[in-house]
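Hello again,

I reread your note about wanting to compare the complex against the isolated chains. To keep things tidy I'm splitting this into two emails, and this first one only covers the full assembly. Below are the input lines as submitted, including protein chains and any nucleic acid or small-molecule components. They are followed by the predicted structure of everything together. The single-chain runs will come separately.
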Amino acid sequence: MPLKKISQIAEEPITFTVSKIEDLMYGVSFDPSTYAGKIVTNISMIDGEHIDDVLSIFRDVMSSGLTVSPLVKLLSPGEKVGSFTIPPNMQGIATVCSITVDGVLLKHGIPIKPIFGGLVEIRNSVPLRFTDLVRYDSTTLDPLEILMSQSLTSVSDMLTSGSGKILANMREITMNAREKVEEVLDELVVAGFGGILEVGEPNSDILGVSVERDHFGVVVVGGTNAEAVAQEQGFKIEAHAMFTLMDIEEMTPITQLV
Amino acid sequence: MISSNTDPQVQRKLTEILRIIRENDTAIGARIIADKMRERGYKIGERGVRYHLRILDERGLTAREGYSGRVITGNGIKELEDGLIGHRVGFVITSIDELVYNTSLNVNTGEGSVIVNTALIDKDDFDEAIDIVGALSETPYSISPYIKILEEDSPDIKIPPGEVGIATVCSITIDGILARSGIPVNTKYGALVQVHDSTPVAFSDLILYNGTTIDPMKIYIDKGMTSVTDALKTGSGKLLANVREIPVSARDQAIEVLEQAREIDIDGVIEVGEPNTPVLRAPISAGKIGVSLYAGINSMVAVKESGIEVSIHPISSILNFKDMTRL
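Full-complex prediction:
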């Protein structure tokens, strides 16, 4: 992250994560029916010499459905993404952020409210409950980055045994939009965007968390589960979730790279 | 595992019984559990407790010990850490309330108890660590120069063999002092404050206590976002801080109480805000003012930044202030 001048920090108002998310959601223009437009991406940085190992981990995680999409973009040292430049000797990997799903729903006229990022405990391939969470309106740091820093994930275990704790997030939607939501989610699945863990019932808890009156919750896997596995396996990886908008044309399915 | 399809009422009782068993050092029977459940507002008899204990045993969360006594298993402890998320959001703060209520420090006499953080370090690192804690206690970033060294035989806190504990005054003590003076206090944010030329400039990050299941202080430390040592050496760096809200009408009294606390060497105040004004960029509710303080664990964080292995236990217990010594 580029360092800001001290005097600059004091004058800028502080931004909570929820504002950043809504900003990115608003910028999403991806249309699953035409497969064109802008999506939200995470950027991760790793030491250049580990890139092959990390990419094969990413491929395994992505093919098992623990990420939103198998699309990636490799970024070379010196390459610019938004206001950020990939440092020398480092390799950047852009992956699809789950906020893309929120953006697409929003652009179909569905009012959507991202609530929190958390950890979902999976038992025998069935999502059981959230075990930790951080609300977007309560933090200036990204919840998934927070959870990764706490060494609480066990996405690798989930891959090998079907049980473990994975990154996920929850949004609330008004209950009368439910049919439309299912329709759009189906369209997204056809376009290769998945990772929907659970669509809740109106006025009912979703994975142990309550929702606002006359709303239902939708839980989607976090976009950085692949990064979490790389980290669990000992690779030093710097993940910036919900980083920037990118044209889907720039991305390639990971299977074409490894 | 308490599965998500268990009746929520049953699930709450199961969790509460587990908590009671864990809080007890030895095996505990159904009759005592039933008494404790009633103290906590659950209407349940001895027979009801037995029924719930059988469920807990079947799920491997508790085990029998002796005649009808129960102890918690490893899985049971894990269940308490993971279960009932709705009750754990903001839990950091619920547990603070209990400590705040138990703080009895009188700012006029210096008598009574304070809330402390403890850091456990290897005995061999003690001299180096205490020098760092000492250096920080002479700066405005410190809550108090009073500490207590805890040896293995300490009656207050259990210290593992080969290690030594250093207890320092926690900033939540000030919430306790304000609450004791009759001021309603709402501990709102865990924050990271940027200092420049040894002056606090702005909060660079904020986390609301009631929007997280993870302690904000632990987040900043584990993400390596602090630079307490730099702040000590160069005057610029990032330190741990927190912000509480109090009513606008209590501002004058709060300032007076904080003055008195300073006279008995309990300070660490960054800023007492103005009405309807953010404190170092932290938004404050209408009708409230923000009071921000440096966190007491900054000295421990400085020790950690120097490369010494240290396990930090924030807001860990209560000590008599008179039993602490000035560095």
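For quick reference: The mean pLDDT of chain B is 89.

B.
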